[in-house]
Structure formats: C-alpha cells, structure tokens
Amino acid sequence: MFELDVTRVQGEFTLEVDLRLASRGVTALFGPSGSGKTTLLRLIAGLDRPDRGRIALEGYVLCDTATCRFVPVHRRRLGIVFQEARLFPHYSVRGNLCYGMRDEDPAAVARISGLLGIDHLLTRMPNTLSGGEARRVAIGRALLSSPRLLLLDEPLTGLDGARKQELLEYLAALVRDIDIPVIFVSHDPQELLAVADDLVLLEKGQVLAHGALNEVLARPELMSRLGGFDISAMLAARCHRHDVRRQLSELRLSDGQMLELPTLDIEPGQWLKIQVRARDVAIALEPVSGTSIRNTLKATITACQPLDDMASVTLVMLDAGQQTLRALISTASCEALGLAPGMTVQALIRAVSLARPAAAPALADQEVP
Ligand code: ADP
Ligand code: MG
C-alpha cells in the first residue's frame, strides 16, 4: 500500500490529496495542465516538502510533518524520469546507466539495455543521442538503481509519433516485467490506455476520481472531465489462433465469445488487452446477417446515458461476460430501439476498428481474468 495524505500551497494553487494507491502495477495521474500532477510527483520524490501530511510506502514513512520526518530524495530509493532526460553529460551511456547502482552488475545492465533497445548506444555520450534515445537511457538508469517505486513524469512528451509509439511499446512491456509500482504522469489518453492499471484524475489540485482504469472510464459523470479519452473499453482477451489466409487473428474473451481483427503480432495462448472505442460499437436487437461487420458480442445493457455536453448522443453501457463494453449511438436510435437497462442485445464491432491496439502488451499471469 502506498499512502499519500498531503497538502501543499504554491501561490494561488493548493494541492490537497488523500489517496491509497496499489503497491503494484501502474497508477496513472491524469489531469489538465496545471492540475498539480508534477507538484504531487515532486512531493513523492522528496524534491519538495508538503505543508502538511504524510507519505508512506509499504509502511516505510518517507515524510510526516507531524513527526518532522523527511527522508531526503537520494535516500528514498526512487527511480525518477522527468520529461527532459537530464543525463549526466560527462558520462557515457553506460556510465549513466551504472550511476545509481550500488554494485555494478553487468548482467543487470545487459538485461535492461536489451529491454530498452540501447545496447548499441552504451559507449556513446549523451550529446550524441536523439531525444527518444536519451529518454530510454534515463528510464534504464532509473530502473537500474533498484528503486522501490518508479516515477515517470510525462516521459514521452515531445517525442515524434513513431519514436513515441516505439518507446511506449518498450514502456508497456517494461512496466509489466518489473515488479515495482509505477506512477505514470501523462495528459495523453493513448499512453495511459496502453500502460495504466489504475487512474487518478486530478483537477485544480484535488482528486476527482481514483480507481481501476476501466471503472473510472466507465463513469459517465466523468466523461467531460476525461476530455480527450476516446470513450472506450479495454477488453481482456486471449489470442486463439491466426488465420493466415484471411489475415485475421481470432481472440477469445473470458466468457468464450470470439472477436476477429486484422493479424496481430502475438503468440496464440497469450492474453492481451484490446481497446474498443465506443464510437466503433453499434447495437442490434437480434443477430444480424449480410453486413461487413465481423464481430457480434452478446451483451446486457447496464445503463443508457445521454452525454452531458451532447444530448443527441447516448452512451450505452454493456456487460459482455463480466467485461464492460460501451457503445456511442444517437439518442434517436436509442429511443427507436427502445433500449433500456436489463435488455440483452448484440454489440456489433468492426474488425478494422480493433486494428493496432495501442501498444497491445501481453498480459502477465496475475492480470488474466
Ligand atoms: P501539472 O504538472 O499538472 O501541469 P503543476 O503541478 O506543474 O501542474 O502545477 C500546478 C500549479 O502549481 C500550477 O498552477 C502552477 O502554476 C503552480 N506552480 C507550480 N510550481 C510553482 C512554484 N514553484 N511556485 C508557485 N506556483 C507554482
Ligand atoms: Mg507537469
């Protein structure tokens, strides 16, 4: 358990947070610019002190204003990566990687540098690296210091599209491989969908919502606050087989229903999360034939909610074998079909809308539903 109960005033701005975070997996801090994400991260890191409060990781108190305890940043054993990589300019890449290690461990360096794809950069100096390469080295350095907690403040911001996607894929694989909690700050929904397990929604220094990513994204009253998140659901599915001739991959959901999508680069038997955007899901009352739509899931309606800022559009919440699915349809269609909670319907999903899910990482055993 990671306990945070802190207040900090900076000029006009007050951060007031009381949170219990899971001590495993990736917790994303999401919120508009100026909502206090970096302020909170700096308090956790020990770069700033709270005016009031306590921070403890697995019972180890990092800071407590009531007892005047404050563990300085270099003794907190945290891996920190900020938006700008901040490498030591006079050390080689290898020197930077080994900087925080107690005892140099060539096997650990080789493992992390392999994972991050920086083997070929080890003898280079920081000023010869691209932005994305420097960012990867910074992440590697943070990991090699054997941190108790990894703090990432917008680690991908400022990278161009292809570099960003590549590093996001490394990160998504990495955070599932390492067994320490990660706090990941971002204002980019695609990044969060790829890596986050839990989501904390910050606004004006306050926590608006906190919970499992899928649960927070399912709360219609937060829709306008989650601006930029394409309303979507993440479904856990297992790769069943690849149909080479038709260039499709077949996935099986936990309740046995199947989905098809353009071929994925994943082994049969592996679990993965796929993003299903609400606007790519249509609803029919009965199974349909004679359409190009390849995927039909039987689902039960749990709620129908017109959007706050666009009443002509209704968000339909669906349960498909214990997994939440969402459909965005016109309010007129919702009324014409007489949709209401409790009804069983067919959710239609276009196969191409499932193509290239954001960094679709394989799921680790403990995440398999
Ligand atoms: P975010 O990372 O979510 O974009 P920040 O945590 O950086 O937001 O900033 C939160 C608020 O605190 C902003 O209103 C910002 O202007 C203010 N702020 C940040 N640093 C300072 C500071 N050193 N002094 C006064 N105000 C600050
Ligand atoms: Mg910030």
Automatic annotation (TrEMBL):
The keyword ATP-binding applies. GO terms for molecular function: ATP binding. It holds the Pfam family ABC_tran. The keyword Cell membrane applies. NCBIfam families: modC_ABC (TIGR02142). Keywords: ATP-binding, Cell inner membrane, Cell membrane, Membrane, Molybdenum, Nucleotide-binding, Translocase, Transport. This is Molybdenum ABC transporter ATP-binding protein. Coiled coil: none annotated. The lineage of its organism: Bacteria, Pseudomonadati, Pseudomonadota, Gammaproteobacteria, Oceanospirillales. SUPFAM superfamilies: MOP-like, P-loop containing nucleoside triphosphate hydrolases. Residues 1-229 form the ABC transporter domain. It comes from the Bacteria. Residues 290-358 form the Mop domain.
